Recover the amino acids of this structure.
């Protein structure tokens, strides 16, 4: 090693987020628990990322997230192989790659953890997309287990009183469903506790993301993609709360010491849509080479976007609104309002959109959002055409050229 | 037959037809998507409901709003609107079905200046009591929206009358389908499609009358000798390409039934003409065969296709799926498997607005139908 590199090392050590190790431990323990659930007499329920998980935790069953699994498959670069398997099974290549890789993984016990534990029941919240409905129907046929559909009417411009009543009734139906599949009574006192923990976790997650308002941002969107796993999978548990307390402290500390997520933050950007899981590192480094940090994103924010609607004193009741009015279940103009707020809050210089072939509800409408931001705020934006898991949709040289051109514009604007 | 010519003329110049209709009656016209639109309520308001299909023109405007991975129906309809070819409309109605239509509604609302825009956010699952209640609530909400925004009122009597008109159309179409299934030689697949499509565009009283008379006349049509063609059922979303029916028939097949939104999913199941009309409409929507964007049971669509194949003695099924249509693509593997289970072979054809050459299509159809012998 050269002398120079040696000197750099303590710098690099300082840059590393210490909580990463802890997170890996927690996730490993969680998956071991899930995979040995049946030996321990516990039920496993598969649930969508936007689904109402808290009641499952109340029942002491283990929630498992095929979407998180999809993300792991993508990050492990095992997506293409599984997607191709799904295509051999007759699933067209244009379908969501989370769904395709999960469906194939079920059949061959594939992916980085050798497949998910088989479910005892399925809970599908369609507040994120229509894809999950089809995907969970497929898994319900495959595993021959009961399926509960938590149907949250789409809110183009309003959350109607009719929809509110419908969702409210489904919460009761959901609890009945859980009582049946788990074979025990639902404990309302425990619900209060889990609801409180869920809210606390979401608040902490919001605070963690908020630390990116600092300049330099101690945490980037790419970091957030990683630390997100617990608010998705262990929302409503003490484990998640403890972890985010720790992460928040670390981030605050970094902010105080002015340690940024990238070495020389000069430009601040906002990311839209799911991560490109197999390229997060490449993207992060590519932008960092321009001293640009993706300081925030619309994706990880979605897991604390309902805080305004949730009520600690009536968690079950407030779930109606909290789970219906989430980011992907609202009109494009409503999404735009949230994006505008984030642009101001994090003081960003540009907007990077991942046009994600896999996810139509997230991606259709992006052109209109882009145009409005350009017109109303003069904000430059970049669109990257890709897919979150299926690497075949990634064309590096083209994307590189686009990023170069985009960063030129940002530089010229900001200097 | 004369009726088919008339329907074809309406389809060929649907814009011109709409403009003339407007001048004649001075009434309003609402465009709509998909069979989950409560046409009866629109009609009862004295408004002409007109189903929108894709475009025959190249996409020039829609690409600025929709990525290339949206289906050609969504892109095509937006193109028509942005190009100003739907200027005769007073608005559009978007029932909630798939993710693409959902976003199309937003994009449409933000970019196209019609006075009326309604989202009919139906339940996605249709197999519970609370969903059934929500369905009726949403239909009543739609009524209120029409009344308020259009400044009119919709009486239950008018709605009942509309229900009867639409039932007449559906009954006639079903009869035509049945007669064809018994005797495929009496009418071509393309002609049947012309009747179905025309019925979604033209004045409904006129359509009801003409279709009833046509069905009556067709009933007395004689079989043209034994039919050696293979009996084919077509399954999928919509097929707005009459030439496909021609090619199937030229390749030695006879389309005897279908499982399409521009076909049996449109006319199967009548609305009750008794009791509260909103409850009756809600019942029909919850009882009817679902589209893949809705849920009634995990095997509902497969069961239905198997039933159709058996009932109409299908020798084979052709899945016609629109490229980038997620709900249908997700259902295909299990539906195919269920057909395999009863020994009915099937083939998959992915279609877009622009079809492959006729030669290519024929080769594939011929190969499939040959195998059915
Ligand atoms: S990526 Fe999009 S389409 Fe796929 S499951 Fe998630 S929200 Fe649904
Ligand atoms: S259901 Fe399929 S064909 Fe119909 S609009 Fe949606 S994606 Fe397009």
């Amino acid at each position: 090693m050269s002398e120079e590199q040696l000197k750099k090392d303590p710098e690099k050590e300082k840059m590393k987020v210490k909580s990463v190790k802890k997170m890996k431990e927690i996730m490993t323990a969680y998956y071991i628990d899930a995979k040995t659930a049946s030996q321990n007499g516990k039920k496993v329920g598969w649930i969508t990322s936007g689904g109402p998980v808290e009641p499952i935790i109340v029942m002491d069953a283990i929630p498992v997230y095929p979407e998180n699994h999809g993300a792991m498959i993508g990050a492990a670069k095992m997506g293409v192989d599984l997607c191709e398997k799904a295509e051999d099974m007759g699933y067209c290549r244009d379908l969501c790659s989370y769904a395709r890789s999960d469906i194939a993984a079920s059949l061959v016990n594939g992916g980085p953890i050798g497949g998910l534990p088989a479910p005892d029941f399925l809970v599908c919240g369609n507040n994120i997309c229509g894809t999950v409905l089809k995907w969970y129907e497929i898994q319900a046929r495959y595993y021959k287990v009961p399926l509960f559909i938590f149907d949250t009417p789409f809110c183009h411009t309003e959350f109607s009183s009719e929809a509110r009543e419908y969702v409210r009734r489904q919460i009761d139906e959901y609890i009945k469903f859980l009582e049946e599949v788990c074979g025990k009574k639902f404990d309302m006192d425990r619900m209060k506790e889990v609801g409180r923990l869920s809210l606390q976790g979401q608040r902490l997650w919001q605070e963690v993301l908020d630390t990116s308002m600092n300049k330099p941002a101690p945490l980037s969107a790419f970091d957030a993609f990683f630390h997100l796993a617990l608010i998705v999978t262990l929302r409503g548990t003490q484990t998640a709360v403890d972890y985010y307390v720790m992460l928040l402290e670390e981030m605050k500390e970094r902010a105080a010491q002015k340690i940024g997520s990238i070495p020389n933050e000069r430009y601040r950007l906002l990311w839209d849509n799911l991560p490109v899981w197999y390229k997060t590192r490449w993207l992060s480094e590519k932008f960092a080479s321009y001293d640009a940090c993706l300081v925030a994103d619309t994706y990880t924010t979605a897991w604390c976007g309902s805080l305004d609607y949730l009520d600690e004193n009536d968690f079950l009741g407030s779930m109606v609104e909290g789970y219906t009015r989430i980011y992907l279940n609202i009109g494009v103009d409503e999404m735009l309002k949230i994006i505008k707020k984030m642009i101001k809050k994090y003081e960003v210089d540009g907007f990077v959109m991942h046009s994600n072939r896999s996810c139509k509800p997230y991606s259709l409408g992006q052109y209109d959002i882009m145009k409005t931001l350009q017109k109303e705020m003069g904000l430059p934006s970049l669109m990257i055409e890709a897919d979150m898991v299926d690497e075949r949709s990634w064309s590096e040289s083209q994307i590189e050229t686009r990023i170069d051109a985009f960063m030129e514009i940002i530089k010229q604007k900001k200097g | 037959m004369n009726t088919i010519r008339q329907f074809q003329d309406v389809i060929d110049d649907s814009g011109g037809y709409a403009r003339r209709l407007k001048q004649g009656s001075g009434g309003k016209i609402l465009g709509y998507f998909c069979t989950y639109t409560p046409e009866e309520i629109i009609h009862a308001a004295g408004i002409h409901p007109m189903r929108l299909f894709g475009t025959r023109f190249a996409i020039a405007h829609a690409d600025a709003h929709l990525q290339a991975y949206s289906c050609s129906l969504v892109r095509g309809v937006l193109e028509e609107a942005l190009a100003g070819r739907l200027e005769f409309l007073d608005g559009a109605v978007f029932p909630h079905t798939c993710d693409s239509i959902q976003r199309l509604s937003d994009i449409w609302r933000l970019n196209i200046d019609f006075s009326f825009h309604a989202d009919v956010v139906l339940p996605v699952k249709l197999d519970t009591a609370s969903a059934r209640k929500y369905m009726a609530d949403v239909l009543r909400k739609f009524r209120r929206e029409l009344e308020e925004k259009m400044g009119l009122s919709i009486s239950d009597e008018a709605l009942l009358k509309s229900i009867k008109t639409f039932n007449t159309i559906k009954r006639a179409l079903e009869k035509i389908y049945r007669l064809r299934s018994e005797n495929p030689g009496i009418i071509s697949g393309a002609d049947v499609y012309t009747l179905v499509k025309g019925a979604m565009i033209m004045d409904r009283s006129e359509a009801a009358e003409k279709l009833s008379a046509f069905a009556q006349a067709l009933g007395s049509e004689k079989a043209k000798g034994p039919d050696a063609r293979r009996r084919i059922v077509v399954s999928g979303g919509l097929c707005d390409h009459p030439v496909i029916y021609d090619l199937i028939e030229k390749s030695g097949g006879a389309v005897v039934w279908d499982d399409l939104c521009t076909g049996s999913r449109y006319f199967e199941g009548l609305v009750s003409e008794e009791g509260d009309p909103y409850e009756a409409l809600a019942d029909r929507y919850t009882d009817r065969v679902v589209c893949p964007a809705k849920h009634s049971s995990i095997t509902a669509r497969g069961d239905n296709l198997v039933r159709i194949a058996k009932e109409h003695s299908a020798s084979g099924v052709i899945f016609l799926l629109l490229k980038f249509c997620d709900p249908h693509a997700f259902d295909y593997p299990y539906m195919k498997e269920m057909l395999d289970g009863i020994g009915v072979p099937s083939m998959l054809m992915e279609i877009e607005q622009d079809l492959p050459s006729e030669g290519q299509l024929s080769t594939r159809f011929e190969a499939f139908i040959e195998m059915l012998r």
About this structure: Residues 7-155 of chain B form a domain with the Rossmann fold fold (CATH 3.40.50.11890). Chain B has a mean pLDDT of 94. The radius of gyration of chain B is 20 Å.
